[in-house]
Amino acid sequence: LASGEAYQVAHLGPLEQIEQYPLVLPDREVRGKVFIKDLIGTTGSEISINKLPAGGAVPFSHAHKQNEEVYLFVKGQGQMAIDEDVFTVKEGSIVRLAPRAVRCLRNNGQEDLYFIVIQTKEGSLGQHTFDDGIRLEHEINW
Predict the structure, then answer these.
(1) What DSSP character marks residue 36?
(2) pTM, 2 dp
């Protein structure tokens, strides 16, 4: 949509239409998952926007080598399995996973499950929010 020296903007459209963006893997095509890194050029995180249809499940468990993940559930309901625990996730649930955590997800609800996953290298956050932000006197011409 737009870009400048210090920003990139993309627009995926309504979450309900996320399946229009196929994720092409060497052995299959996945719909309902969009990685943001290549869209806007992130350099410190990987973010994905995800849709898991009612009755659907991630077809495998996985862990990571270095990256922690944060799952932000924005619509629907499902179950998450982490190591030996299984619990309900739904709109408003937030889950942080250490790299070593074995994880899987299923939608056991009646509607699509939408969630955002943010990956960052575990332990890499040096500053945050108020420590990192710089207040500027900058006039905005809307």
Answers:
(1) S
(2) 0.91
